[in-house]
Every structure is written in structure tokens, then in C-alpha cells.
Design goal:
Residues 266-308 are annotated as: Disordered. Residues 1-30 form the signal peptide. With 308 residues, the chain is mostly beta strands. It has 2 helices and 28 strands. Strand 1 (45-47) and strand 2 (50-51) form a beta hairpin.
Length: 308
């Protein structure tokens, strides 16, 4: 008869946390890839003021949730679910996804940092408000992507950069998708892309292609493309592209290089009127006295003939 294994004492409180951290460290220094893959993602998140357990998913409820993460997310999915949720991530989003789910959600995160996979923020269905610090990707397998998805979304980000990979996938991209979206971004450069999607979108960028190139593509609908607050957006000097797409589009843009491209803009800013060249005031010539015109002599009165 096999010996009875000793009863395991359940640890609680600080002792349990210490044991968990010890196990995580052991897995990190283990020699086999299988043991390293078994590491449990660590994060510090709360769902409606209740601490979320360690793991690769932080989930909201079917109602209106407040999800708050005060640490980096690495290999973690944050899912708001149904309801009008507020999701805040104070740390980096590393190889992770933050998704609002159904409802009019508010999502605020720091930088998207793809290291071994992609980092993503999605509003999903609803009129969402999304704010992301920076969006920097590199290739198809290391994408940094912000999706508004369905609804009239308002997306604000810092700089957008990073070339896509094969089939134009990945890289650094901000897209409104369906709905009349408002996209306000920083500098779009190093092959970063900003896409309006369908319907009438408003796209504002701080700069486009100042160093290596970037793309703004408004898509179908009567779109507006400009700099911040409707100011003139400078395109270039390095391979910046504005493609307003189908619709009657208004582009408050100017090109500073032959390497840039601006297309499908029906309404462009009118050129500033040229100021007349300053000329020296003319020196007045002295007036030449005109010769006096002789007046015709007055006719003498006729003399009456003497009486006979």
C-alpha cells in the first residue's frame, strides 16, 4: 500500500504571495522552454475596486465597469465586456490587448510596446473615447494598433510610427473603422498609418512624414484632413502621403517636397494672395510752365456812317 502523502498546508496572505513569487522566479530561471512558458503573467489591476487575480485575462462584468491597472501589462488581455466601461492602464502595454467590448467605453493607456508579439487597443462596438500615449510598431508580427471599430469614436494618440509587414499587416496604425470618427494624432512618420475608415471622418495630425514618411488615408465619406484644430498640415519633406478617398473631402494641407503625394482632395486651401512688391516713391518732376495763350482781341464797335 503506497504511503499517504503529507497534508499540504494552505498558505494565506504574505506567505502565499511570497510562495507565488518564488515559483515564478523558479520558472523564469528553469532551463526548458516549456517551464518558461508556464510563467503566470503578473499585473496589478482592479475591477470595480476588487483586485484581479494574476493571470492572462482581466475581465469586466456585464454592467458598467471601472478597470484600473497600475502596472505594465505583459501578455495580458483586458476585456471590458458589455456596458459603458472605463479602462485605465498606467503602465506599458507590452504584447497585450485592451478591449472595451460592447458599449460606449472610455479607454486610456500609456505606450503600446510590441516586443515578441503585437500590442492592441480596441473600442469594439459603441461610441468610444480612446487615448493612447504612443503607437509604435515594426512589421507584421510586432504591430501596435488602435481600432475604434463600430460607432462614432474619438481617438487621440501621440506619435504613430512603424512600417507594416507582408500584406500590409502590423506596423504602427490608428484606424477609426466604421462610423463618423474623429482621429487626433501626433507626428505620423517612419511608415506609420492613420486610416479613417467609412463615413465622414475628421483626421488631425501634428505632422506627416518629416523624417521618413507616413500615410493618412481617409477612406469613403466626406472627410476632413488637417493639422491640429484645423490648421494647415505640412506633408513632408520625406514621402508623406494624404489620400482622401471617395467623397467630397476637405484637405487643409500643404506639400513642401516633390516626394510627397496629396490626392482625392476636392477642397484645398486657397493660396495666400501675393503682396505687391514694394516700390520707391516716385520723385515728383518740377512742373514746366505752360506758355500763355494770347487772348483774341475784342471786336471794335462799328462806327455809324456820317449823316448826308
Amino acid at each position: 500500500m503506497p504511503p499517504t502523502p503529507p497534508a499540504r498546508r494552505r498558505l494565506r496572505g504574505p506567505a502565499a504571495l511570497a510562495a507565488l513569487l518564488a515559483g515564478t522566479a523558479a520558472a523564469s530561471f528553469a532551463g526548458t522552454p516549456a517551464q518558461a512558458a508556464a510563467r503566470v503573467p503578473m499585473h496589478q489591476c482592479w475591477v470595480n475596486e476588487t483586485a484581479a487575480p494574476p493571470g492572462d485575462v482581466v475581465s469586466g462584468t456585464s454592467g458598467d465597469d471601472h478597470i484600473f491597472c497600475d502596472s505594465d501589462l505583459e501578455n495580458v488581455t483586458v476585456w471590458g465586456g458589455a456596458g459603458n466601461d472605463v479602462i485605465e492602464v498606467r503602465g506599458l502595454v507590452i504584447d497585450s490587448a485592451v478591449m472595451g467590448g460592447d458599449g460606449d467605453d472610455v479607454i486610456r493607456t500609456k505606450h503600446l510596446v510590441p516586443q515578441n508579439a503585437s500590442s492592441m487597443v480596441r473600442g469594439n462596438r459603441g461610441d468610444d473615447v480612446i487615448k493612447v500615449a504612443t503607437v509604435a510598431g515594426d512589421g507584421a508580427e510586432h504591430g501596435a494598433v488602435v481600432h475604434g471599430d463600430d460607432g462614432d469614436d474619438r481617438i487621440t494618440t501621440g506619435s504613430v510610427s512603424g512600417a507594416p509587414g507582408r500584406y500590409n499587416r502590423g506596423g504602427g496604425i490608428v484606424t477609426g473603422n466604421d462610423g463618423a470618427d474623429t482621429l487626433k494624432v501626433g507626428t505620423v512618420d517612419f511608415s506609420g498609418r492613420v486610416l479613417g475608415g467609412s463615413e465622414a471622418d475628421t483626421i488631425e495630425a501634428a505632422a506627416l512624414g518629416p523624417e521618413s514618411g507616413g500615410l493618412i488615408q481617409a477612406g469613403p465619406g466626406d472627410d476632413t484632413v488637417s493639422g491640429p484644430g484645423g490648421a494647415v498640415l505640412t506633408v513632408g519633406p520625406h514621402w508623406g502621403t494624404v489620400d482622401a478617398g471617395v467623397g467630397k473631402d476637405t484637405c487643409t494641407v500643404r506639400s513642401v517636397s516633390t516626394r510627397t503625394s496629396i490626392s482625392a482632395c476636392e477642397i484645398l486651401p486657397k493660396p495666400a494672395p501675393k503682396e505687391p512688391a514694394a516700390t520707391a516713391p516716385a520723385t515728383p518732376k518740377p512742373a514746366t510752365p505752360k506758355p500763355a495763350t494770347p487772348k483774341p482781341a475784342a471786336p471794335k464797335p462799328a462806327t455809324a456812317p456820317p449823316a448826308g
